[in-house]
From TrEMBL:
It comes from Pygocentrus nattereri. One of its GO terms (molecular function) is protein-macromolecule adaptor activity. Residues 1-22 form the signal peptide. The keyword Magnesium does not apply. SMART domains: FBG (SM00186). PROSITE patterns: FIBRINOGEN_C_1, FIBRINOGEN_C_2. Keywords: Coiled coil, Disulfide bond, Glycoprotein, Secreted, Signal. Residues 212-434 form the Fibrinogen C-terminal domain. GO terms for biological process: blood coagulation, common pathway; fibrinolysis; platelet aggregation; positive regulation of heterotypic cell-cell adhesion. This is Fibrinogen C-terminal domain-containing protein. InterPro entries: FIB_ANG-like, Fibrinogen-like_C, Fibrinogen_a/b/g_C_1, Fibrinogen_a/b/g_C_dom, Fibrinogen_CS. Pfam families: Fibrinogen_C. CDD domains: FReD. The keyword Heme does not apply.
Amino acid sequence: MKLSLLYKSLILAAWTQSLVHSDNGTDTQETDSNESDSHQTDKHRISSGLMQCGEYSNEVMPNGQCRLMATLPQLEEQRCPDMFRCTDEVSYWLHENEERKQQMQDLKETISELQEELRNHRHRIKVLELQNEEKNGQNSSLEQRFHALEQIYEEANTLLHIHGSLIYDMQTQIRNLTMSVERVRRNPGCMINIVRTSPLLNAQETLHPEVQHIRNCPIDCASLYYNGVHRSGIFTVVPSLGSTPVEVYCDMETDGGGWTMFQRRQDGKVNFNRKWTEYRDGFGDLNGEFWLGNDHIHDISSQGDYCLRVNLEDWNGKHKHALYQSFRIENEENQYRLHVSGFSGTVEDSFSWYHDKQSFSTPDTGNICAEISHGGWWYHQCFFANLNGVYYKGGRYSAKGKNLLGPDGIVWYTWKDSDYYSLKKVSMMIRPRTFKPRPSP
C-alpha cells in the first residue's frame, strides 16, 4: 500500500510541476513578488468533489521547482478520478515498479526455497549428529568388548599354562607308569620292598639300611631264565648284595643262555675314554655299546660263583671266545681288583694270566697305561688284552700314523699276535658256574 501511495505521490508531483510551468507566463509578477517568501508553505484544499481523495500540500523549492506532498485515502472499492494524464516518465517508473515487484516476488520465492533447503540441511546435520553419537556409542561399546576380550585372552593364557603344566606332569607320570609296567613285565611275580633310611633310625641303621628282597625277584639273568624268560633283551634284576634294582641286558641264546652282559662293543658309537665315576656307575646304551658299571658288576659277581665268557669277532667275520670258570671284582675301596681264572676257549688267553689281581684304572686316575690306551681297564704294564680301547674301523692302525705313545685299540694280543689290530665286536658276560640250561620241551 505504501508503494502505491509513493507512485501516486510522484504522479501528483509531476502534475503540479506541469501546472506551474503552464502558468509561468501569467503569474510571473506574482512569483517575483513572492520570491522573498520562497520558503513559505501554502496549503490548499481540492474541490469538494475531490475531498474524498484526500489532501495535499506543496512547497516551492529554492531552485524554482514545486514540491508536492499528498495523502490519499485507502479505498478498496472507491477509486479517485484521474487528476492528470500519465506522462512518459511516469509510465517508465510504473514499468520499473512492476519489474521490481516481480523481482521482489522472485526473491521471496528464492528466499523460501533457501529457507526450505536450510531446514533440510539442518535436518541432515541433526541426523548426522545422531549417527555420530550412535557411532561413538558403538566405538565405546567396541572398546569395552575389546578390553573384555583381552581379559578373557589373559585368563585363557593362564589356563593354557596351567593345562600345559598338568599335561607335562601327566606325561611324566605316564612315562613312570610305563617304565613300571615294563619292569613288571620283565620281572613277573617280582615285588621289591626297600626299607630306606629314616630320621627315626639310629646312626648304625642309617649307615647300613636294610634291604628286603621279596620272593621271586631275579638276582641275575640266570634266575630270570629259571623263571621262564628265554628270550634275549633288557630286564631288571635285584642283586642280593645291592640296594637298588638295575637294568641289564640278558643273552638267553649263547651256550644255553642265562648270561648277564656287562660290556659290549660293536660299532664305535660310544666313547669309552671316560672318567672313574662313569666307569663306576655305567654308561652307554644297553641296546648298543655300554659298560654296565663296576658297582653293578661287583654286586652281581660277588653274590656267588660266576664264570666269564668273552666273545670276539674280527673284521673278516671270524668268531672266537674265551671262557673263564671263575670271575669277580672287588668293591670301589679296593679299586675293583680283578679275580679271573680257569681259562678255556677257541682263542689263546690274553687276559687272565696277565691281568689277574690287577686294579681298575681310568685316564683321570693318573695311570699312564690308561692315559695311553684312552680307556678304563685292569692295566698291567700296560696290557695284553684291552677291550675298552679306541674303536678303529677296519682293524689295523699305526702308532706312527696317529702319533700314538702306544697301542690304544680294542686289543686281544693273541688273536693276531699284535697290539695294533683292533677287533670289530667284543662282549663280556657272566652267569653262575653251576648254571644248567633247561632242555626244550
